[in-house]
Write a structure and sequence with these properties.
Radius of gyration: 18 Å
Helix content: 25-40%
Structural class: alpha/beta
Largest sheet: 7 strands, parallel
Bound molecules: ligand RRO
Number of domains: 1
Shape: globular
Strand content: 15-25%
CATH topology: TIM Barrel
CATH class: Alpha Beta
Order of helices and strands: EEEHEEHEHEHEHEEEEEHEHEHH
Amino acid sequence: ISTATTLAGSNFDNCMMNASGVYCMDSDELLAVENSKAATFVTKSGTLQPRKGNPEPRYFETEFGSINSMGLPNNGVDYYLDFVSQDQINHPGKTYFLSITGFNLAEDLELLQKVTDSDFAGVVELNLSCPNVPGKPQTGYDFETVDAILKAVFDVYHKPLGVKLPPYFDIIHFDQMAEILNKYPLSYVNSINSIGNGLYINDDTETVVIKPKQGFGGIGGEYVKPTALANVHAFYQRLNKDIQIIGTGGIQTGKDIFEHILCGASMVQVGTALMVEGPVIFERLTAELEAIMAEKGYDNIEDFRGKLNYL
Ligand code: RRO
């Protein structure tokens, strides 16, 4: 049984990796994912300048998931670009993901210029969906801006690039966003980022649980799986077959991965559950997914990918 996959023109030993934001802030965390059973890693979204992010507490684990308002803390794009460029030399044949996010189109292009000028040969994930920078909307909800960004990006950047999208909740929005995405040579779309601006409260203290934005933050974990599966499948139904899908959201078990793949995902990312269990989680997830595949008689993920049945 193989859980190997191909994404953005690269082959991966299996279909699992971290979600950006989790276990990827610095070289120690990235190496911990690299040395786990995960196929590869993605870096924390890098900005032009290093950022401290929002005041703490800014991450909280709940019974069914997590809420965060990290506010894009990161070591700056140069740090991550240097790390991945070196790491790919240390590991020939491996492909890594560099997440980037600018605060406007000019910054996105400046970030991409740095990638172009580097030796990095992996995949760029352009994050269009950070929900937690005060005063900054989630780009992915501004359809015209997404279109303008992608047009400008693909005018200058010609290596593998995917986008991280926020969750959508209306069929017309799936239609409209897919129509935009289909105009561009994207390698993949990654659905979903956290569900933005949820509110989790402590009844005993009658208080919010994170400090930034009066407690509002992005929701991840078990809460978001149905939304994630809907977004993965909606884009699977609508996107050109050369735009692949990374499924992210609510993955805690091999069964959750099976469902994401059934909805059309070619790779999956683990956020909240990786935060809870650490990189050793990929051993359990691999074993659980392989057990499901064995029971169903599937040899590889293409045997069932996207083959969701309808009533
Ligand atoms: O750093 C964050 O607050 C953050 C980002 Br950039 C993101 O894309 N998604 C998220 O849940 N948190």
